Amino acid sequence: MDMGALIARLPKVELHLHIEGTLEPEQLFAFAKRNGVALSHPSVEALRAAYDFHNLQSFLDLYYQGTAVLQTELDFYELTMAYLERVAAQGVVHTEIFFDPQSHTDRGIAFGTVIDGITRALTEGEQRLGVSSKLILCFLRHLDEDAAFATLRQAEPYLDRIVAVGLDSSEVGHPPSKFERVFSAAREHGLLTVAHAGEEGPPEYIWEALDLLKVSRIDHGVRCVEDANLVARLVEEKMPLTVCPLSNTRLCVFPDMRAHTLKQMLDAGLKATINSDDPAYFGGYMTENFTAVQEAFDFGPEELLALSLNSVEASFLDAGAKARIT
Ligand code: ES4
Ligand code: ZN
């Protein structure tokens, strides 16, 4: 059987996608021109050539630099619409999207400008492209608790558009415990919780995300395999892990795809899912991520369908919507 054809036909659900990480260099230059923003790279080619990362921080430095071109409601709308069009063509039927409001509000962009542009595209994407979606507000963990609380307050008028809060940015040195109280406040608002944990950080951060932040999913979580008790807990709770294969190799979490722990995780009974993280920076969207792991591990239809099903089950869709996908 042709695995490429199967991957193309597979109904895909994306659960770990930073909308700011879908900003392709061409669009970045177009927004910079429209908004009169000066860039530190002379051309699209020079910028793309700089996407040669050695760890998470080396990526984040460029990622936050890129956000400077996003200024108007139209920018956020076009950014989101372009992502939805790309993934609709890849067979994505549902996507749960992170956004980083602090990376914009800290530059003087209003919270409402950001969320209005994103959600206008999400509504249109569902109607015109048939891609359903949910939105997850991420707190930047390198900033302090007060800043996260201020962001949660800014989100209050828009809570009907947000399904969950998440935690992203520089992991090491910023454990989940730093955000226990703001996550508790978010849960009191009726929001679900997720958190990046065990990408570069130790297994202890995954324990904290479970015990202190009461997460419904662990984002990345690939370092869980270093702790057998943690793996047992994650299996027991059927806790989804949103794995991002191309992200992990591009950020040197693993030296190459064959060294990735995905296969080990699936063999252990973990609910791993495949996701693209920051596709404009890491060399591919959902199809490219599925293709990379299929080739590295010689996955057949059984593994590919199991991965796809894990994502449907791990999504925040209701039971009826999940049943319609499978
Ligand atoms: C991120 Cl790959 C990754 N890890 C942590 N925070 C992030 N924000 C955007 N991409
Ligand atoms: Zn991420």
Please give a structural write-up:
- This protein has 326 residues and is α/β, with parallel strands linked by helices.
- The protein has a single domain (3-313), classed as Metal-dependent hydrolases (TIM Barrel, Alpha-Beta Barrel), CATH 3.20.20.
- It has 17 helices and eight strands.
- It has helices at 3-9, 25-35, 44-49, 56-67, 73-88, 102-105, 111-129, 145-155, 180-188, 203-211, 228-236, 245-250, 262-267, 279-282, 286-297, 301-314, 319-325, and strands at 12-18, 92-99, 132-140, 164-168, 192-197, 217-220, 240-243, 271-274.
- The chain has an eight-stranded parallel β-sheet with strand order 1-2-3-4-5-6-7-8.
- Helix 11 links the parallel strand 6 and strand 7.
- Helix 1 packs antiparallel against helix 15 (286-297).
- The longest helix has 19 residues, at 111-129.
- The mean pLDDT is 98.
- The structure holds 6-chloro-9H-purine and zinc ion.
- 6-chloro-9H-purine (ES4) is lined by residues 18, 21, 56, 63, 168-169, 196, 199, 247, 277-278.
- Residues 18, 21, 56, 63, 168-169, 196, 199, 247, 277-278 line the site of 6-chloro-9H-purine.
List keywords for this structure.
326 residues; alpha/beta; TIM Barrel; eight-stranded parallel beta sheet; 17 helices; globular; binds 6-chloro-9H-purine; binds zinc ion; adenine deaminase activity; zinc ion binding
Number of domains: 1
Give the overall average pLDDT: 98
List each distinct ligand once.
Answer: 6-chloro-9H-purine, zinc ion
Query: Treating each run of at least 4 consecutive H or I residues as one helix, how many helices?
Result: 17
